[in-house]
Amino acid sequence: MSKSKLFEIEETQLTYNAAVLLHHIADGLARGSLRLNDGSGEHVLEVGKQVKVSCSAKSKEKSDGFKNKLEIEVTWYAPLEGSR
Questions:
Q1: pLDDT tens figures, 12-28
Q2: CA–CA dist 26, 29 (Å, integer)
Q3: Could you tell me the residue ranges of all domains in the chain?
Q4: How far is Cα 53 from Cα 62, in angstroms, rounded to an integer?
Q5: In contact, 37 and 49? CB cutoff 8 Å
């Protein structure tokens, strides 16, 4: 069984741009197919009929204010090629 990282983004963005990215991901989930492009190429992930969603929000007080964090994880199984 192999594991490969297909897409990763970690950067500071305007709040609006982050919202656009999240909308793009949500639209792909609703369609059943995610199209992700991080500059190294486009990757398409077929989404199953059921997904597991984990969501958590955290807040930590710092000297210059509160550092807030929202984590969203969506996982699903896709059949192996040829086993459909």
A1: 999 999 999 999 999 99
A2: 5
A3: 15-75
A4: 29
A5: no
